[in-house]
Automatic annotation (TrEMBL), chain A:
This is Putative ABC transporter ATP-binding protein. Pfam families: ABC_tran (PF00005). CDD domains: ABC_Metallic_Cations. Residues 6-238 form the ABC transporter domain. It comes from the Bacteria. The keyword ATP-binding applies. Keywords: ATP-binding, Nucleotide-binding, Transport. One of its GO terms (molecular function) is ATP binding. InterPro entries: AAA+_ATPase, ABC_transporter-like_ATP-bd, ABC_transporter-like_CS, Metal_Ion_Import_ABC, P-loop_NTPase. Belongs to the ABC transporter superfamily.
From TrEMBL, chain B:
CDD domains: TM_ABC_iron-siderophores_like. Belongs to the ABC-3 integral membrane protein family. The chain crosses the membrane at residues 6-26, 33-51, 57-75, 87-108, 142-161, 173-197, 203-221, 228-247, 253-274. It is found in: Cell membrane. The keyword NADP does not apply. Keywords: Cell membrane, Membrane, Transmembrane, Transmembrane helix, Transport. This is Manganese transport system membrane protein mntB.
Amino acid sequence: MKMNPLVVEQMTVAYDRQLVLEDVSFFIPKGKLVGVIGPNGAGKSTLMKAMLNFIPRMHGHVFVYGQPYEKQRHLVGYVPQRNSVDWDFPTNALDVVLMGRYGHIGLWKRPKKEDVDMAMQCLDKVGMLPYAKRQISQLSGGQQQRVFLARALAQDASIYFMDEPFVGVDAATEKAIVQLLNELKTRGKTVLVVHHDLQTVRDYFDYVLLLNKRVIAFGETESVFTYDHIQKTYGGKVTFLSSTHIVG
Amino acid sequence: MSYTMWILLTASLVGINCGLVGTFLVLRKMSMLSDAISHSVLLGIVGAYMISHHLQGVSMLVGALIVGLLTTFLVQWLHQKGVQNDAAIGVVFTCLFAIGVVLISLFADRVHLDVEHALMGEIAFVPWDVLEVGGKSIGPKAIWLLGFVLAINIFCIVFAYKELKISSFDHEMAVTLGIPVVLIHYVLMGMLSLTTVASFDSVGAILVVAMLIVPSATAYLWTDRLSVMLICSAFIGVLASMIGYTIATVFNVSISGAIAVSTGVIFFISLWIAPKYGLLRKWLKKSPA
């Protein structure tokens, strides 16, 4: 089981002795798109940050292809929430995407022409090539999100963690993201996406992780994304979903 | 070289050093840490004097470097222990600076160093304190010190350009890519300590903050590229030195004060007229054409 792309074992995280995540365990098979679903404050972002060691874990282990995450850093790509960086930073779209190549380029070395070419290709894939030289604060929210995705592509990781990539984006960008997720999947990549639009879960994801401090349910969307599980995750506060969006 | 030329060269070297380092401070939103380090290095200078019994370049640099990094470390440590970041900065630098002040008063009769000098600097004396090799003068000591620090700063920025850039823009991404962000942070703080102590004699602890932050904040208004911002910021530092010195000689006022005021004036003018981010441009954009 440990040879799965991602295995999380009994992970517990606390802020100021307040438990934020409790005993979270799951594993993800190769080439799956996984939605991480839960209400605000359920610990979705915390889950990603704790897996990436940004915040300390009280207990638990994270294995990437059978090895502890610390040894496999280069296999994991992270797409943070868009508002986690300062978009006024003096740099352009191409430069940001090029940052995805830094791990491959190596410390203290300069990007080569191949790296720039690859960054351009990645911008092209998300439809942002015409904006390559534009300063990043001059881009719309959706365009900024696409730049982040292009950067993730340039990183060429095996597993991706994406924190709310669909938040505040236009329809064109949403479509571009879905297309990209499917392309990553066909290339055998594993993608974990923090998501909060319940209506699109069934269309977008193969697996779901229903989270509210603990794992409420985990498994294939078809069998796990049920009315009961959703009610349990959201504490019975979900009333607007029509039956076409959920199972059973 | 004439007296005026030496002063202009000194001020320009301060401007370039501070402009380069300051750019990263502004982008990393650490402006206040420069205030902290510029004060606490005083302790480093006094400490270096206590050990080596002179105020020569290298021992001063080493002393400042140690105390500068100590400041950074203590601020980080207090912050991790749950103290607010700004409070941590406030506590650490005032304590270290105060220890420096106490020690200076203890040695006041034996050393050419006083608190006023430390705070305000005295660039007018720079040309007379020359370095001699084999009985021959090879220019003011301050120039050599600033030149040496400039070489270190340029080397670090060129060598670690992409690492400085990504860790300033997206810290978490840098961590996932295996960039040694902590090392980069300390290298930058080391550069800041060296820059501060080298600029100390000329502009003092308070005005060095102006030289670090104001030209960089001004350059930020003028450009979209980090490399251009670095050059622009250094250029504004030099420009302010020229203007400030001219004002100082015409009105017979403090040179370092006039230079710092000039940085402020350039900033406010830029705030209005900068082509992309200036206030005028923003107003013109808003009003219907």
